Every structure is written in C-alpha cells, then in structure tokens.
Amino acid sequence: MARKLLGPGAQAPYTETRHTAPKAPATMPLSFAFRPRLLDALRSYDRSRWLADVGAGVTVGIVALPLAMAFAIASGLKPEAGLWTAIIAGFLVSALGGTNVQIGGPAGAFIVIVYGIVERYGVANLLISTACAGVLLVLLGLFRLGTLVRFVPVSIVIGFTNGIAVLIALSQVKDWLGLSIDRMPGNFFSQISTLAQHLDSFNPHAFGLGAACVAGLFLWPRLTMKESPVMRVLEQHTVRTFARVPAPVVALVTLSLLAWALQLPVETIGSRFGGIPQALPVFALPDFSWDTVRLLVTPTLTIALLGAIESLLCARVADQLATDAHHKKHDPNQELVAQGLANIVVPFFGGMPATGTIARTVTNIRSGATSPIAGMVHALTLAVIVLVAAPLALHIPLAVLAGILLFVAWNMGEWHEFVRLKHFSNHYRLLMLGTFFLTVVFDLTVAVEVGLFMACALFVRRMSALFRVERQPETESATAGQPTARPATTWRLHGALFFGAAAKLDAIVQAVEAGSPGLEVVLDASELVALDTTGLDALAQVLKAVAARGGRLYIEHLHEQPRSLIERSGFGARLAAQEDVPV
Questions:
Q1: Distances, alpha carbon 29 to alpha carbons 145, 330, 359, in Å
Q2: What's 82's DSSP letter?
Q3: Strand partners, 522
Q4: Is residue 89 part of a domain?
Q5: 159 close to 435: Cβ distance less than 8 angstroms
Q6: Which among 124, 336, 368, 427 is least surrounded, fewest beta carbons within 10 Å?
Q7: What is the CATH number of the domain that holds 529?
Q8: Do 244 and 303 belong together in one domain?
Q9: Which residue, among 317, 348, 321, 316, has the nearest Cα to 134 in the 3D structure?
C-alpha cells in the first residue's frame, strides 16, 4: 500500500528529516594534552612584560598576606597554614595552570568547609581530604570534564556563595567583639547561642579596631579616586603613591601599630598562636589509610566540587576583565589539573585547600599582570615576607583580621540578587533561596546536593511541560486505485519525548481506542527534537493500541536522534512489519 498522505517514498512506515551535526574543527584535541599556559606566555616575553609582571606580583603578594592568615585562622588552623598554602599552591597554580593571570591560594569560600572538617574529623583528616580532592581535580582535567562545572545552575552558585558569606561574617563576630570563647561550634544555631551566652565578655577595644578596619576598607578606595578631594590635594605630591597601597595592607599595618603603641588589651596572633615560624615548612606524610579515606568521601567531594567551581568561575572573570593583548581564554582542563596538583602537594607541608581567588586575581589584572610570571612572583614575595618579617606578625590583632574578613564576606556576597528575585521565575527563586538557607542552616554539602536534585527535578518538570501533542484536522487516506480506503488522523509532536513527558501520549492511545476500527494514525515528528527509551516505549504503546484496532501507525519527518534510536531499538522494523487489515 502506498500512502499519498506521506508523499514521495511513502511506502516506508516512517520518514525523516536529517539534521547533520557540524563537524568539530580539525584542530580540536581529542585527548588532554598537558601544556601549562606559562609555556605559551614565554614565547613572546620581553623586558616590559617582565617589569609589569614583577610589579603586579609584588602588589598581589602584599595583598595576599593578611588574607592568607585570616582565612587560615577563621578555618580553625594556624596562620602559617594559610601563608604556605598561598605560597606553594599560588606558585604551582600559576606555573602549571591554564590561565594567564589567575592567582591561586586559600579562599574565603573554603572557610566554612574547612572549619567543619577540622571540628568533625581533625586537622590530619583535613590534609587527607585535601590530597584526595586534588586527585579528583586532576582526573576531572585529564578526562576533559572541566566544562561539566558549567552545568551547575547559576542560582545554586549564587545561593551557596551568599550563604558562605553569611557564615564567614558570623564566624568573625567572636574576634570582632573580643568575646572570650575557647572554640566556636560549627553549627549555625549553636554559633548564635554561643555568641549570645558570651556577650558579657565584650571587649570595646577589639570592637573599635574591627570597626575602624571595616570602615577604612570601605573608605580607602573612595579616597584614592582621581575625583576625590584627597587625590586633588595630593595630585602633585609623592604621597599619591602611598595612597595607592592596597587597603587591607594599610588597615593591617596602621591598626596593628596603633594597638601596639597604645598597648590595647586585645588578642593578637602572638597571644593565641605564639607567632609564625620564621622557617620553611617541614615535609610530613599524613597518617593515610583506606579506612580513613572511606570516611572522608563527603568532605573530599565537597572540597573538589567547590574548588573546581571557584577556580573556573575565577578564570571566567579573569577572561572578562583582562584587556592585555597577550591574554588568551583559559583552558578549563589544564586549570583543573594545576589546581589538583597544588592540592595534592600542599597537605604534605601542613597546608589547606586552595583554589582560584577572585579578589587577588582582579588585583593582579588591575596591577598590570600579563602572564603567569606575576602569580609566581606573588608566591615568592609572600615567601620572602614570611621568612624575613614573620616576628612582626606577633602584634597583629585578631580583631583587625576579623574586620578584613567581614569586608571580604560583604564583597563575596551577591546581595543585589535578592532584590532581583522578583524578576525571575518561581523555579529560580526556589533554587537560590533553598540553596542559601540550606548552606546557612546545614552545610554546603547538603545545600549543593539538594540544590542539584531540585534543579534536575524542576528541569524535568519544565521540559515535560514544554512537550505537547496536537491533533490535526482529520483526513482520509487513499490507496492505489481506490479514492478512499480508511480514515486517518494526524498528531503533531512538539518538544522532547522523554520519561517526564511520555504520559502525554496517553491521549493518542485513548483516541485510538475510542475511534473507528482500521484507523490510520500519523505522527508528525518534524518538531520532535529528542526521544529517549521511555518515550520509545510510549510510542510502542501507541502502536499496540493501533494494531489492536486493525489500523497502521506512521511516523513522519524524524530528526536524526529519534530516527537513530528507532532504528537501533528495532522499533522501525516493527513499524515496517505492520500488516494491512481490510476495513
């Protein structure tokens, strides 16, 4: 039988419209090739770029000094853990990474994670988790899975970023107010309760130093703007150079000198930790066992996931901000390998997890960096400062470091996104607010797991809502030599026929069962973009219902993916084997 309704070649039970995917460029690598961006940068390297990189590296190294110590202390570790992480990981990430200007080191996003791991498992197990997370990052890069990180919805990223910012700020209230608390708990509500119980130990001197630090960090950039009154007065003076010193360094030095000169009764690095060792870190192997690794699966995955997201987000920010003619877009897989290697190495020197750091990377770009040399100089600058001036850190008040971290938390949070929620769908609001509250109340691991589950569920719901089945005006089919033979009905399929939308084909089955015997059913698949095995099973149910009524099923205008699945599954052969049943 030849069906005129199908047009030329209608004897086939289904026809297709082929859509060939574009071929990949011939130069696209099929496997990972280890090639640090440093090698490309050195090809056209000259003296002017060297001077620019050295200047940027020294600047970032000075900026990284207070941040590295503050991140380590807030994570429940000694300040030297943050410093040597910034030095070792910063050097390795720049030397081996896939970006031109990214700075690696300890990051504020890890504070809550590291503090929770230290409290629950101890410092030794933190080192094992960090090394194992490094192995996972290397594997992600080697298998070219760097682009998978971009599959995490932006609503989840904003939600946990804002949640971490809140937790960082909360963790610094103790040192900012100078409260006498031996150790803060890791739970949100327990922290609130502990702070409330110790308010009677409030230290006004610590609070004043912390408040002055926060105020100074907010005001300093505005004082150094060209149009500010201060800069107009200092335009022709050498003081203008001093006015461009990074705000955290100014706050750290001036307020530490003030506290030391006035002998203020506040807690310092020296009083809590006994100072910073003025020596190279000692290589030591953590007490490793597979039993321990099995217990650390969750924290390991958390460190790896957060490290990958932070580093690649930072690399994308760097690509957007960098205007240097030598800048090239980052290689996500090479960057993940470098981040992984850095996290494998730093635990053997008592370090903490490391990733790309947005604040220091932006400082690096604005300071004129052109290549990874700047990041390597930043690490060497920090090392020189630690080895030469470590005793001076004894006098740094913890309230000042708390003020710096409060400022970091404020800049880290994307608070304007809460105001913009009214412009987005309920799905977006649910994901962002759900991830935010889960991060604050529980922890980042739960937040990301639940957030990704909700994202998948909402995506399935939305895609199933987009799929629809439309019944077209009925016609009659014609056989060769006969004007009419049997009635025919056409249904058009729109969207993706997958497990979340397969039930919508029940309408066709019901119509067939209620229709005339011998009915021919035509499915117009010109707008069917995808088909999975559950959708294929739904088509099989339609075929079964049509066959039971003595009719035939035809599928028209199949695209490449649905056609391929129909052929491979044998469903196409079943369509071709249909027998004509006389009306």
A1: 13, 15, 32
A2: H
A3: 490, 554
A4: yes
A5: yes
A6: 124
A7: 3.30.750.24
A8: yes
A9: 348
- 333-370 per-position pLDDT tens digit: 999 999 999 999 999 999 999 999 888 998 898 888 99
Q: Specify whether 370 is located in the same domain as 483.
A: no
What the block records as the tokens of 48 is 């002017």
Banded model confidence at residue 508, pLDDT cuts 50, 70, 90:
very high
Average pLDDT over residues 372-390: 92
Q: Measured between alpha carbons, how far is 356 from 358 in angstroms, rounded to an integer?
A: 7
Ranges 62-71, 292-301, 380-389: which has the least confidence: 292-301
Q: Is 476 helix (H, G, I), strand (E, B) or coil?
A: strand
pLDDT at 33: 82
Report yes or no on 446 lying in a domain: no
Q: Give this prediction's pTM.
A: 0.79
75 and 224 share a domain?
yes
Paired tokens of 484: 């009419």
Query: What are the phi and psi torsion angles at 525 (to 5°)?
Result: -100, 20
Q: What phi and psi values does residue 63 have, to the nearest 5 degrees?
A: -65, -35
Q: Alpha-carbon distance 478 to 549, whole Å?
A: 19
Beta strand 355-356 with 104-105 is antiparallel
Coil, strand or helix: which one is 330?
A: coil
Residue 32 pLDDT > 80, yes or no? no
Least confident stretch, 17-21, 474-478, 537-541: 17-21
Q: Quote the domain boundaries for residue 189.
A: 47-391+398-416
- Cα separation values, 206 from 209, 215, 258, 287, 339, Å: 5, 14, 12, 39, 37
What are the tens digits of pLDDT across the range 209-251? 999 999 998 888 777 665 556 555 555 554 455 556 778 888 8
Q: What's the total number of domains in the chain?
A: 2
Residue type, 282: V
Given a cut of 80, whether residue 490 has pLDDT beyond it is yes
Burial class (CB in 10 A: 0-12, 13-18, 19+), 140: buried
pLDDT digits over 431-443, tens only?
Answer: 999 999 998 988 7
How distant, in Å, are the alpha carbons of 369, 453, 494, 546, 554 from that of 558?
53, 32, 12, 20, 11
**25 in a structural domain:** no
Q: At what angle do helices 297-321 and 332-345 cross, to 10 degrees?
A: 130
Scanning 75-122, the segments in alpha helix (DSSP H) are 79-96, 111-121
> Count H helices, E strands: the chain?
26, 8
Residues 375 and 507 in one domain: no
